[in-house]
Design a protein that fits this description.
Blueprint lengths: L6 H12 L21 E5 L2 E4 L4 E4 L14 H12 L9 H13 L5 E5 L2 H16 L3 E5 L12 E2 L9 E2 L12 E4 L4 H11 L3 E6 L2 E2 L5 E2 L2 H14 L2 E6 L10 H9 L7 E4 L10 E5 L1 H4 L18 H14 L4 H22 L5 E5 L2 E5 L8 H4 L4 H13 L2 E2 L8 E2 L6 H18 L1
Helix pairs in contact: 2-9, 3-9, 5-6, 10-13, 12-13
The structure holds pyridoxal-5'-phosphate.
Length: about 425
């Protein structure tokens, strides 16, 4: 066989010799959909170009951060100016205060915030803080929610609610997840049973309020209300992992969506990432002052980071937040995203293909199913082979959606009417081949 001369294939072969699987994060390897990952050469606005020079409309936006599109002039300017003044100091800066103040202004459930470098780090630290602040060990998470790759959170359900989880990764000792209880998303019944059994020992309930790591699944209002009530009743903390939804579904995150629907609603701790860094490694966690003051150097819960609050990353995040805080930003983004979903739905239905979709702000999910799923098991009922044909059909036509059916998608402010129209035209062609 003669080796491929496609530059993506050449790079993938070379990458696989020096990087496990050729990628630095597994989903990039296209294992779910097959084929060769596209190696990105550069990006601008709503597009990126691969190693062959082919252009794609980008619906992953670095898995969420690029809400303004790539290379926004105000953000680029802020980053370039910051870089000239030094990359990292290991000492505090005024810009960290500015970014903290800006975040707290938009997320009123948080009185204090600490900056870190990745969502994984933020989630892991919030978990430690919840345990430290409550003096309890046990935690609840939900099947299909992803909170980064910390040991205690790489876990799947055990057999029944009295038993705790099993690791989903080699290298995680069973002892490390023995305090993690995994429940079905949106099951009020399981939640009530779990609190009845373990209430006094529960440090927290950790949840993606709108789950974006099992495609797009909203927590139902009655379920979220019950999470909140049971946490309050039993002295457990409600931890909202808004790494994906924060500043993506609304300026106040998913919690602002639920606060509108449930009177008096607010989470105890919030975990942020992705958009707040605008594409740079930056994440955060925060909550009430009394809880946050349990962190070192004030309190006994240890947490630290060489690059935390990095001056270039905070410049990027701050410039991004200033743009998205402008009036009308989320209305326009939400409308565009809803339009895209409606267009895809009518394209699919014109071919008699089962299709449903949901979105909030600039985050969306669609399913080759007749009804929106409420939990992970139902999401996974999607016919994988059909999704893969859709994915590759769109990719061939220059439309890049997430390379797995269990991932959400993202629209940016840079996506134009033309981009959306091109996407729908491609989808109409591909749906014809899926019948
Ligand atoms: C992306 C993501 C994380 C992990 O963030 P990283 O920066 O990749 O470590 C955690 N939680 C949620 C909900 C995410 O979407």
């Amino acid at each position: 066989m003669t080796p491929s001369t496609d530059r993506n294939d050449v790079l993938f072969e070379r990458a696989k010799r020096v990087i496990p699987g050729g990628v630095n994060s597994p989903v990039r390897a296209f294992r779910a959909v097959g084929g060769t990952p596209r190696f990105v050469r550069r990006a601008q606005g709503a597009h990126f170009w691969d190693a062959t020079g082919k252009r794609y409309v980008d619906y992953i936006g670095s898995w969420g951060p690029m809400i303004l599109g790539h290379g926004h002039p105000a953000v680029l300017d802020a980053v370039q100016k910051a870089a000239v003044d030094g990359f990292s100091y290991g000492a505090p800066t005024e810009r960290e205060i500015e970014l903290a103040e800006e975040i707290l202004k938009f997320v009123p459930s948080m009185e204090m915030v600490r900056l870190v470098s990745s969502g994984t780090e933020a989630g892991m630290s919030a978990l430690r803080l919840a345990r430290g602040a409550t003096g309890r060990s046990k935690i609840i998470k939900f099947e299909g929610c992803y909170h980064g790759h910390a040991d205690a959170l790489l876990v799947k359900a055990g057999s029944g609610l009295a038993t705790f989880g099993n690791p989903t990764s080699a290298g995680v000792p069973a002892e490390v997840v023995q305090h993690t209880l995994v429940l079905e998303y949106n099951s009020v019944q399981q939640l009530e049973e779990a609190f009845a059994l373990h209430g006094p020992d529960l440090a927290c309930v950790m949840i993606e309020p709108i789950a974006g790591n099992m495609n797009f699944v909203r927590a139902s209002v009655p379920f979220m209300k019950r999470c909140h009530e049971l946490c309050r009743q039993h002295g457990a903390l409600l931890v909202f992992d808004e790494v994906m939804t924060g500043f993506r579904v609304a300026l106040g995150g998913a919690q602002s969506v639920y606060a509108r629907l449930i009177p008096g609603f607010n989470p105890d701790l919030t975990v942020l990432g992705k958009v707040i860094g605008g594409g740079m490694p930056l994440a955060a966690f925060g909550g009430p002052r009394a809880v946050m003051e349990q962190l070192a150097p004030l309190g006994p819960v240890y947490q630290a980071g060489t690059l935390s609050g990095n001056p270039v990353a905070t410049a990027c995040g701050l410039a991004t937040l200033r743009e998205i805080a402008k009036p009308g930003f989320y209305e326009a983004l939400g409308q565009k995203t809803r339009g895209l979903m409606a267009g895809l739905k009518s394209a699919a239905e014109a071919q008699g293909i089962a299709f449903c979709a949901d979105s909030e702000g600039g985050m969306f999910g669609f399913f080759l199913l007749t009804e929106l799923p409420q939990n992970y098991a139902t999401v996974m009922k999607t016919e994988g082979a059909k999704f893969n044909r859709l994915f590759h059909g769109l990719l061939d036509r220059g439309i890049y959606i997430a390379p797995a059916l269990y991932e959400a998608g993202f629209v940016s402010a840079a996506h134009s009417e033309e981009d959306i129209a091109a996407t729908l035209a491609a989808a109409r062609e591909v749906f014809k081949t899926l019948r």
